[in-house]
Amino acid sequence: MAHALSPSGALRLVIFDCDGVLIDSEGPSCRLVARVAREHGIGVSDEESIERFAGKALAQVKHELEAETGHDLGADYVAIMQDKLVELMRDEAVPIDGAATMLEGVTALGLPFRVGSNSSWPEMEVKFDRVGFSPLFPRHRVHSARDMMRPKPDPYVFLHAAAEENIDPSCCVVIEDSDTGVQAAHDAGMACILLRAEGPPPAHDWTGLRRIAHLDELVPVLADVLKEQAR
User: Fold this and answer.
1) Interval 176-193: pLDDT, tens
2) What are the CB-based long-range contacts (under 8 Å, 24+) for 139-143?
3) How far apart are CA 4 and CA 187, in angstroms?
4) Can you tell me the distance from the alpha carbon of 26 to that of 184, in angstroms, rounded to the nearest whole number?
5) Do residues 220 and 212 touch, judged by C-beta distance below 8 A?
6) Alpha carbon 81 to its chain's center
């Protein structure tokens, strides 16, 4: 079956994850989760926090910590953490290396793009404001799986983004950095480019999955795909 990256496919929409793809926020966010866990008596180090929590929705983090330790983090844990993350990102969010140039390149290719993230809209809004990306990502092109109450690995946020663009999922490519996001892209029937410089391959592997080590590689990959599909 043709997908957005195959020679017989039709690449028409790029859907970016936010954290770890556009914004370098995974480290600060995961360390915050670890610090709050320790405040509740749960022994989670900063060093292990990224491996354990990167790409996961706060509700999933809460469920895993409570199931593992028997601690009750409280019914308001997610809301409290969300407020803390917004304030953290207001001061600490920085762009992923190469993100600004990459976005210019994707725009030059004539490809529309959207965001599909597990972060809330208020959190993404302060991130994009801080790094200067707000003009590129107006509210109607940014989709929050958290706000929809359908966090990844549920594919709904990606399917919603495609529907808003009136594009078939088979014509979309998702840019992700987490196994959770890769699974969501797979289940949405979309191609995926995994941004991961090192580490293990994701659990899901299919013909529509490619891997790059740096954002500098993305535009050339997309340009080659478009060139091949135009033949």
Assistant:
1) 999 999 999 999 999 999
2) 140/164, 141/113, 141/114, 141/115, 142/114, 142/115, 142/117, 143/114, 143/115, 143/116, 143/117
3) 15
4) 18
5) no
6) 18
Predicted TM-score of the model (pTM): 0.84
| Residue indicated by tokens 């690995």 | 153
Instruction: List the 113-117 sheet strands across, edge first.
Output: 142-144, 113-117, 13-16, 172-176, 191-195, 209-212
H/E stretch holding 192:
strand 191-195
State how far the alpha carbon of 37 is from the alpha carbons of 19, 49, 101, 136, in Å: 21, 10, 37, 35
- Write the CB contacts of 107 (distance below 8 Å, at least 6 apart in sequence): 136
CB atoms within 10 A of CB 51: 9
Tokens 């529907």, residue? 163
pLDDT at 159: 98
Tokens in use for 9? 């496919």
What tokens appear for 222 in the block? 């997309």
How far is residue 171's CA from residue 191's CA, in Å, rounded to a whole number?
8
DSSP 129: H
Question: Torsion over CA of 82, 120, 206 and 218, rounded to 10 degrees?
Answer: -110
DSSP state of 112: -
